[in-house]
Design brief:
It is built from 4 helices and 2 strands. It is 72% helix and 6% strand. It has helices at residues 2-9, 12-47, 69-102, 113-126; strands at 59-62, 65-68. β1 and β2 (65-68) form a beta hairpin. It has a single domain (2-103), classed as Non-ribosomal Peptide Synthetase Peptidyl Carrier Protein, Chain A. The protein is mainly alpha-helical and 127 residues long. It has a two-stranded antiparallel ribbon with strand order 1-2.
């Protein structure tokens, strides 16, 4: 029973998936910080929002409940930024790598099948 668990836990796919998850979370934190601390304050300054960016700009007070449309827009911009970063920095390079790896390698032009068969025929004729 423990051997099966050990085999599962030490499989390459599980380790690679764990590393990918950690890297994805780090990338998400980095892009979230970029969006919240750089992009949103710039957008807020352009649109006349407060110093904390767009999150506090579009708020609606409905019977004491505050609906924060700006926070949703901020989360949407963060998501789209992360999706673009993953696509352009991970997906596109990986697709290019796969295309190069799957492309047939240029092999040196060796003798054709007919040349080989002719040589075999000639060898047998000499014997």
């Amino acid at each position: 029973m423990l051997k099966g668990f050990k085999d599962f836990a030490l499989k390459g796919n599980l380790i690679e998936t764990g590393v990918a998850l950690v890297m994805a979370l780090a990338l998400a934190a980095l892009i979230t910080a970029l969006v919240e601390n750089v992009l949103m304050p710039i957008i807020g300054a352009i649109t006349g929002g407060a110093g904390d960016g767009i999150a506090s700009l579009w708020t609606v007070d409905a019977n004491g409940s505050i609906i924060m449309f700006g926070a949703f827009v901020s989360a949407l911009v963060t998501f789209l930024s992360i999706a673009a970063a993953v696509y352009f920095f991970i997906v596109k390079p990986y697709e290019a790598y796969k295309a190069r790896a799957e492309a047939p390698a240029d092999e040196e032009a060796g003798p054709s099948e007919i040349d080989l068969l002719t040589d075999i025929r000639d060898s047998l004729a000499r014997s």
